[in-house]
Design brief:
Blueprint lengths: L1 H25 L14 E6 L14 H8 L9 H15 L3 E5 L8 H16 L3 E5 L11 E4 L2 E4 L5 H7 L10 E2 L6 E4 L4 E6 L21 H16 L3 E6 L19 H10 L4 E4 L6 E7 L2 E7 L9 E8 L2 E8 L2 H7 L5 H4 L1 H21 L7 H19 L7 H8 L2 H5 L4 H11 L8 E5 L3
Helix pairs in contact: 3-4, 10-11
């Protein structure tokens, strides 16, 4: 009897040991192995969402005034549109979501804190989030809370705050980071390394001034970039760059402060290191442009502001063939119905966003034209409506036209009225000449 019990115990112990071995060697938790990255990767790119936390404004006159200066950005339903974006991402499960700066309205700490909470469901579903700052995010002297007729200063985001708030959204797991900026690098796929670059100019102490529009790389950051990109090239890989400021001028009339300072030097560096593509934001318009520098062709894809029509974002699919980019948008209308919202501006959000943006473009035209003493008010109306329409098409990337369509616009009465206003005419002409590439789709073959 004792011998039988002993054998039974031995068999039980052996069974437990075998079970532990199976668990250890065959049921391991999933981890990101930088030495063996996935062969197919999908990334969603979102830019310039300019989120302001709802607790920082009310229905008073001061915030209503700020809305009139927002250049067509929608400010009151941002939380809902971001929730709709997160819901869509959880359904479609991209590998990574990248935010390329101006993630807050004007660098309010509370807004960044709230944004982390809004994005956290993505990381809980193992969707990586990567964030870099824009020119409105770090030590912005315009950080405010709006109460009634008052603007009240609110806590600004410091560089250390940004790194801490978004620790799990890029900085903690970086393969390398620049000690002199908020730039970092990570192993992306088998063929590409990802560079998340801080191009912004900000003070190291809280600011009392407006944010700097222009951007640059600090000399130390340039040295870090040269060293890291050489490593990427030595590994027979190409860099993919995400940054806020633009590498190229995407509009002939409006580009000052949007293109990075010392652009020629940066372009030369990127060409020397065979950068595959640059993703940026800042100008709020959806645009794709490519140039050849030192016999190397580098496309730049600017993702339109998420806070304007049509809540757009980019999707890139990376595989052995190369990089495929598609512009997409969030259907907030459907999300509102699914979540039982009752606000008509959410249930008809796309129409609401488009109307808001077109009217802002028309208002811009009226403000300029009204000083030109145009004889007929009806003529001014036609010109303003044309500007509103073409401006919306440019910002949404829907401005590809045939020569016949361009000629029809130029013979219209609204266009003829623009002869009274040299700035507006120059701007509209720059839109009509946007014929470099189609702005919502691009395939970039792998550099073999």
């Amino acid at each position: 009897m004792n011998t039988f019990v002993t054998k039974k115990r031995i068999m039980l112990v052996l069974t437990l040991i075998i079970g532990i071995i199976v668990l250890v060697f065959f049921i391991r938790p999933e981890t990101h192995d930088a030495s063996n990255p996935p062969q197919n990767t999908r990334i969603w790119v979102l830019s310039d969402n300019h989120f302001i936390a709802p607790e920082l404004y009310d229905d008073g006159s001061e915030f209503a005034f700020i809305e009139t200066t927002a250049a067509g950005k929608e400010l009151r339903y941002q939380e809902e549109s971001l929730q709709a974006f997160v819901s869509l991402a959880i359904k479609e499960a991209p590998d990574q979501v990248v935010l390329t700066g101006d993630i807050t309205l004007n660098g309010e700490y509370i807004s960044a804190e709230r944004l982390v909470a809004l994005l956290s469901p993505l990381t809980e579903k193992n969707i990586e989030v990567r964030v870099i700052p824009g020119n409105h995010d770090i030590h912005d002297g315009w950080a405010r809370k709006y109460v009634g007729e008052e603007q009240i200063k609110t806590k600004q985001i410091s560089p250390d705050d940004f790194r801490t708030l978004f620790k799990t959204m890029g900085y903690a797991g970086a393969e390398s980071y620049d000690e002199n900026s908020l730039s970092y690098k990570e192993a992306g796929t088998a063929d590409y390394d990802f560079y998340f670059l801080d191009t912004n100019q900000y003070t190291l102490e809280p600011s009392k001034s407006a944010p700097a529009t222009g951007g640059r790389f600090r000399p130390e950051t340039m040295q870090w970039l040269k060293k890291e990109m050489k490593k990427t090239n030595d590994e027979k890989k190409q860099p993919i760059v995400f940054m806020h400021h633009n590498l190229y001028a995407h509009n002939a009339a409006v580009n000052r402060g949007y293109v990075i300072n010392d652009a020629d030097e940066v372009q030369t560096l990127f060409a020397a290191n065979h950068v595959a593509v640059v993703f940026s934001g800042h100008i709020h318009a959806q645009d794709i442009l490519q140039k050849t520098i030192d016999n190397i062709t580098i496309p730049e894809i600017v993702t339109s502001s998420f806070s304007i029509t049509p809540n757009g974002f980019g999707e890139l699919t990376i595989n052995k063939k190369g990089i495929d980019y598609q512009r997409k948008s969030v259907d907030v209308d459907s999300w509102a119905k699914e979540t039982n919202q009752t606000d008509t501006n959410l249930l008809n959000h796309q129409a609401y966003l488009k109307d808001l943006f077109v009217k802002d473009g028309e208002a811009l035209a009226y403000r300029s034209l009204i000083e030109k003493k145009i004889p007929k008010e009806a003529d001014m109306d036609e010109a303003a409506q044309l500007v509103g329409k073409l401006n919306e098409e440019f910002f949404t990337g829907m401005d590809t036209r045939s020569p016949e369509e361009v000629e029809k616009i130029k013979t219209s009465n609204g266009y003829q009225v623009l002869e009274y206003d040299s700035f507006l005419k120059k701007y509209i002409d720059s839109i009509l000449k946007d014929d470099n590439l189609e702005d919502t789709h691009l395939f970039i073959p792998k550099n073999n």
